[in-house]
Amino acid sequence: GENVEQHPSTLSVQEGDSAVIKCTYSDSASNYFPWYKQELGKGPQLIIDIRSNVGEKKDQRIAVTLNKTAKHFSLHITETQPEDSAVYFCAATSNSGYSTLTFGKGTMLLVSP
Amino acid sequence: GAGVSQSPSNKVTEKGKDVELRCDPISGHTALYWYRQSLGQGLEFLIYFQGNSAPDKSGLPSDRFSAERTGGSVSTLTIQRTQQEDSAVYLCASSLEGWNEQFFGPGTRLTVL
To answer: In this complex, do B43 and A103 lie within 8 Å of one another by their Cβ atoms?
Structure first.
């Protein structure tokens, strides 16, 4: 089955700095890679996703890059703000008939003012 | 519109008791998923329902865990003879058929004393 590794487990940055979270996956058939943000006491919320037919996707301050050859994908947050502080999860799926996601263990991002 | 809702938000029970956790998916979503999130860990897949197909139970950790989905909508996750290691946040998600994007509820925090 799929295995997703996520690094780092914790990340502290100053407001305005950039943050990068990296994930690797094992199943070369995986073709959908979402990122979720989980705030304290809430369920995860989808913030951006990428499919295997593109290498990069941007949405305002957030971008995701995908390297299919190396089987890794990354989340980039620019101009970080205190409200970006949360736990971020990457995930992968092969969509082979159904779409059960395999999640990384999460990265706790702390943005200090 | 309304998102995924779960009840109760918190449940404290004694070891050996049975518990039922409820999930109301987004109206029209045919796929429903249950995950377990232990402290500091990622999301562990438990079970997946898609329309009228047989559920994918491959993630259930033991035969004490079961789930039903009535009328293609509301789902109940039942844990029998609870153990302390069952303490976790149980998350439900739903998605449209054929779509990967999963929308999560706020979770039920289960504490087994």
So the answer is: yes
User: Alpha-carbon distance A70 to A111, whole Å?
Assistant: 29
Q: Between residues 31 and 70 of chain B, which touch chain A (CB distance below 8 Å)?
A: 31, 33, 35, 40-43, 45, 48, 50, 56, 59
pLDDT digits (tens, 9 = 90+) for B46-100: 999 988 888 889 899 999 999 999 887 999 999 999 999 999 999 999 998 766 7
Closest by Cα among B46, B35, B47, B112 to B80: B112
Q: Structure tokens of A105?
A: 């263990």
The angle subtended at Cα B60 by Cα B79 and Cα B101, nearest 5°, is 110
> In chain B, what residues touch A49 (CB-CB under 8 Å)?
100-101
Give the number of other CB atoms < 10 A from CB of residue B65: 18
Distance between CA atoms of residues A55 and B1, nearest Å: 33
Q: E strands of A26-106, at which residues?
A: 32-38, 45-51, 56-59, 62-67, 72-77, 86-92, 102-103
Kindly give, in sequence order, each residue whose CB lies less than 8 Å from that of residue B63, ignoring residues fewer than 6 positions away. Answer: none
Q: Alpha-carbon distance B80 to A83, whole Å? A: 39
Q: How far apart are CA A102 and CA A61, in angstroms?
A: 25
Number of H helices, E strands in chain B: 0, 10
Q: Which amino acid is at B61?
A: P
